[in-house]
C-alpha cells in the first residue's frame, strides 16, 4: 500500500514552497516521522516527516520544484523492505519511452543524486545503450520566466533587486530559479538588472579578497540568507527611527519575588519578566493603534488584535514565534506559550504558522548582556520594542539619590505612519505600566 507524502500547511499567506532537498533517495528505508524532505518558503525552512514506515517508493517533486499546500511530494510503500529494484520500478513507469531503453542500464542513477536540478529526465541519457558514443546530457540553460514560474520567495528577491531572472543560471528542476540561485548571482555580481546597465551600482559585487589560510569560508545557511534579506529589506523600505527611555524594574522584581513560587505551583510555569512586558505592550497598542498597524501599498491597515512576536535566539539564527491574539491570554498563558516557543525554537520544531501573522515584536537583548541597542523592524510590522539588561544605577528619587534596578527600553518604529509624539507616548505608557504593575490589573 502506498502512502502519499504531502506538503503541510505552510502558514498564513504562504501558499507555495520550493523543495530544497531530499534526505532520502528512492528505494531507501524510512521510519515513521523521520525527516524526509526539506521545504523552503520566503519565511522559513521546514522538514516534512515520513507519514509511515516503509520504503521511499517514488520522489514525485524533485529538488527545485515549486509545490503548493497539500501537493504530493512522494510515495512510501508502507511496511515494505528496501530492495535494489525499489527505486527503479516507479521511475520506469514515470519516464518517457526513450528513457526506458536506458533505465535498465542506468539502474538507480536518480536515487543516488540529491542535488538540486536533477530531475527524472535530467539524468536519462536517452538513446541506444550498446551502440555509438555516449550521449552528453544537455547543459541546463537559464529558463525564461514564462517557461519557469517563480516561487514567491524567488519572485520577491527578483522584484526587490529589479533583476532579470532570464539572466540568472537556474539549478532547479525544469529550469526553475531557486532562492540560492538568485542570492548567489547577487553576491557574485553576475545578476543583471532590468534597467540600463549604467543604473546598476558598481559596488554590487563583493571586493576581491585573499583568504588567510587560518580562515574558514562556509556558505550561509538558507535561514541566515532569509534573515539577511529581510533585515536589509526593512532598512531599505521603512523610514526607521528609534526612541529610548528607561524603566525602574524594582516594582516588578518585588512582585515577582513575592509570588513566583505560588505562581509556578498554580500554573506549572515560571514567572518571568517577558509576560509583564507583553501585557504592557498590549495595553499601549490599544491606546496607540498606529504602532500596531502596517503599510500596504498606499493604505494603512489597522489591526484590532495584538499578535505579539517574541524574538528567540537559536544556533541557526533569530526566529520570532508569535503569540496569536495575545490580548485574550492571561499572564500565565503568555508565560506558558513563551516557554513552549523557546523549547521548540531550540529543538528546531517551530512551524511556519508559529511565526506568521505578527503585528508587533519584542526583542530581549538583555539576556545576552546588551545594555542598549536599536532593534530592526520585522517587516511588515511598524514597531519593535527592545528590552535590555537590568543594571543597578544611582537615580534621583525626589531629593534623594537611590540605587535602583534600571533597564533601557528602545522602540524602533516606521516614521511613515507613526509620528514621534505617538512613538514617545507609547514608550512612556509602557514605562508607567512596568513601574506600577498594579495598573495592568486595574486597566488604568
Distance between the termini: 63 Å
The gross shape turns out to be: globular
CATH topology of the largest domain: Chloramphenicol Acetyltransferase
What is the number of E strands? 19
**Hey, roughly how much beta strand do the residues contain?**
15-25%
**Quick one: biggest sheet?**
7 strands, mixed
The overall average pLDDT, rounded, is: 80
Helix and strand succession?
EEEEEEEEHHHHHEHHEEEEEEHEEEEHH
How many helices? The count is: 10
CATH class of the largest domain, named Alpha Beta
Number of domains: 3
> What oligomeric state do the depicted chains represent?
single chain
Gyration radius over CA: 27 Å
Q: How much helix is in the residues?
A: 25-40%
Provide the CATH architecture of the largest domain. 2-Layer Sandwich
The CATH superfamily name of the largest domain is Chloramphenicol acetyltransferase-like domain
The computed structural class is: alpha+beta
Low-pLDDT stretches are 85-147, 196-203
Amino acid at each position: 500500500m502506498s502512502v502519499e507524502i504531502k506538503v503541510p500547511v505552510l502558514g498564513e499567506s504562504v501558499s507555495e514552497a520550493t523543495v530544497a532537498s531530499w534526505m532520502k533517495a528512492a528505494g531507501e528505508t524510512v521510519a515513521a516521522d523521520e525527516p524526509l524532505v526539506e521545504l523552503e518558503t520566503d519565511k522559513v525552512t521546514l522538514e516534512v516527516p515520513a507519514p509511515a514506515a516503509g520504503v521511499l517508493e517514488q520522489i514525485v517533486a524533485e529538488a527545485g520544484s515549486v509545490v503548493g499546500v497539500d501537493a504530493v511530494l512522494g510515495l512510501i510503500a508502507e511496511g515494505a523492505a528496501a530492495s535494489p529494484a525499489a527505486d527503479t520500478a516507479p521511475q520506469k513507469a514515470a519516464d518517457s519511452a526513450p528513457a526506458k531503453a536506458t533505465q535498465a542500464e542506468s539502474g538507480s542513477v536518480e536515487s543516488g543524486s540529491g542535488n538540486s536540478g536533477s530531475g527524472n529526465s535530467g539524468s536519462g541519457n536517452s538513446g541506444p545503450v550498446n551502440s555509438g558514443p555516449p550521449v552528453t546530457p544537455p547543459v541546463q540553460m537559464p529558463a525564461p520566466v514564462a517557461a519557469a514560474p517563480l516561487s514567491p520567495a524567488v519572485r520577491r528577491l527578483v522584484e526587490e533587486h529589479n533583476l532579470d531572472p532570464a539572466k540568472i543560471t537556474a539549478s532547479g528542476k525544469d529550469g526553475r530559479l531557486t532562492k540560492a540561485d538568485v542570492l548567489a548571482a547577487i553576491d557574485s555580481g553576475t545578476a543583471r538588472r532590468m534597467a540600463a546597465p549604467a543604473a546598476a551600482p558598481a559596488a554590487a559585487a563583493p571586493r576581491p579578497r585573499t583568504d588567510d589560510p587560518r580562515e574558514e569560508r562556509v556558505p550561509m545557511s538558507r535561514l541566515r540568507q532569509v534573515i539577511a534579506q529581510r533585515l536589509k529589506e526593512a532598512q531599505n523600505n521603512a523610514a526607521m527611527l528609534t526612541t529610548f527611555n528607561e524603566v525602574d524594574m524594582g516594582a516588578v522584581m518585588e512582585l515577582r519575588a513575592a509570588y513566583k513560587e505560588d505562581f509556578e505551583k498554580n500554573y506549572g510555569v515560571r514567572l518571568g519578566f517577558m509576560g509583564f512586558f507583553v501585557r504592557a505592550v498590549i495595553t499601549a497598542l490599544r491606546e496607540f493603534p498606529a504602532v500596531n498597524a502596517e503599510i500596504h501599498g498606499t493604505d494603512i491597515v489597522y489591526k484590532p488584535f495584538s499578535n505579539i512576536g517574541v524574538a528567540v535566539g537559536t544556533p541557526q539564527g533569530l526566529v520570532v514565534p508569535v503569540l496569536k491574539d495575545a490580548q485574550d491570554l492571561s499572564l500565565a498563558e503568555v508565560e506558558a506559550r513563551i516557554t513552549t516557543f523557546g523549547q521548540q525554537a531550540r529543538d528546531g520544531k517551530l512551524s511556519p504558522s508559529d511565526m506568521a501573522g505578527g503585528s508587533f515584536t519584542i526583542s530581549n537583548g538583555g539576556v545576552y548582556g546588551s545594555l542598549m541597542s536599536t532593534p530592526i523592524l520585522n517587516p511588515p510590522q511598524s514597531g519593535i520594542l527592545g528590552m535590555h539588561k537590568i543594571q543597578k544605577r544611582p537615580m534621583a528619587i525626589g531629593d534623594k539619590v537611590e540605587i535602583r534596578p534600571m533597564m533601557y527600553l528602545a522602540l524602533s518604529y516606521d516614521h511613515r505612519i507613526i509620528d514621534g509624539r505617538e512613538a514617545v507616548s507609547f514608550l512612556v505608557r509602557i514605562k508607567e505600566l512596568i513601574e506600577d504593575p498594579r495598573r495592568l490589573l486595574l486597566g488604568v
